[in-house]
Amino acid sequence: MGAKRTLSHSLWIAWKDLLELTRVKMLLVMLVLMPLIMMLMVGYMYPTNGSINHLPVGLANLDTENDNSASHIFVGQLEAINNSTGMMNLSSATSFADVKTKIQNGDIYGGIVIPENFSENLMMGKQATITIITDQSNPQISQTMQSVLTQVIDRMGTELAKQNLGVDNYQTTLTKIEPYNVQISGIVPGTPNYFQFVAPGIIAMVVMMSLMTALPRAISHEKEVGTLDGMMAAPVNRLSILLGKTIAQMVRGIIQGVVILVLAVVLFGVTIEGSIPLIFALLLLGVFSFVGLGIVITSFAKNEETAAMMMMTIMFPMMFLSGVFFPIQQMPGFMQGISKVLPLTYATTALRKVMTLGAGIPAIATELAVLIGFGTVMIMIAVPVFKRMMTK
């Protein structure tokens, strides 16, 4: 009888706790919505091939500009191939420095530079060099672009060699002449690697997760146990309560961001090309943009569990759609559109530009404006929402 009674009571208690799902409608919605979002997101996010499609690329022709120059003919052939394949969205650039600036600004994802002596070398029977410039903050895109363009240029060179030798079967000739020599160059020294790509995104993501997971504890939990009521009864301005919690979470986020930054440099050999003070400023700005969003979401939740579930439902899509682990450029078009409204996208992009490409403030002006604007709007919404929550 004792065992049966214990089991009966256990089932009644379990039933009582499960009824919470019906009492808190938002929690029930999140239990269905979160796995649905994850399945849709992961199912559509990853590309099925290693090709490039409409990739913005800058073309700088520094050779003699006339209709008969070898460089002009080369550019015409490249544009004809590109028009039929849709590999790139070619735009003009004036120099290597111009390509570098456009990559830092996010206008293009790579470049092709034809040097001044291109036509001269071909006329003298020498190899003509073509430089492919890659975006080292995005090694996946860079490697794909490098591989595809190298193959295309090699095929163009093979066709030119056939014409020059006057043979049909180029591979059977005793003398093999490659007219084009492809060189790969980054805009900063060093070879790109996945750690260099993922470290800025991990830093931004950890800052976001630190805030979004801590706020339900700091607000919803204290509201449940009555600690928040005690602070409200004290002779303390309610705005001070909000500011105090905000400052605490901002300090926590900054500390965790700095820890991840140090670990990335010491353990994984990540090189910081840009300004360290600017990186710290971006960390602070990222914290500022996320904390307001977290307060708004937490204030609408009835309990800590619902707040945590709401946070997770928002965090996971941001983690995967903001370019933290995977290039946004290789996602489907509609997912790229979603990524443009996520604050983590701009925090990740700004940190990556500064840490990997050595970019300055002008190159991240868009990201700064978005983060400041988003954080300001969220704080303006959070203040009245938090005050209204404390009056209930």
Q: Could you walk me through the main structural features you see in this protein, from its secondary elements to its overall organization?
A:
By secondary structure, the chain is α/β, with parallel strands linked by helices. The chain folds into two domains: 55-186, abc type-2 transporter like domain (abc type-2 transporter like fold), CATH 3.40.1710; 193-391, no CATH class. 67% of the residues lie in helices and 8% in strands. The protein has 15 helices and five strands. The chain has helices spanning 2-18, 20-23, 25-45, 70-85, 96-105, 118-123, 139-165, 194-225, 227-233, 238-268, 276-300, 304-321, 333-339, 343-357, 365-391, and strands at residues 55-61, 88-92, 110-114, 128-134, 180-186. A five-stranded mixed beta sheet has the order 2-1-3-4-5, sandwiched between helices. Helix 4 (70-85) links the parallel strand 1 and strand 2. It starts with a helix and ends with a helix.
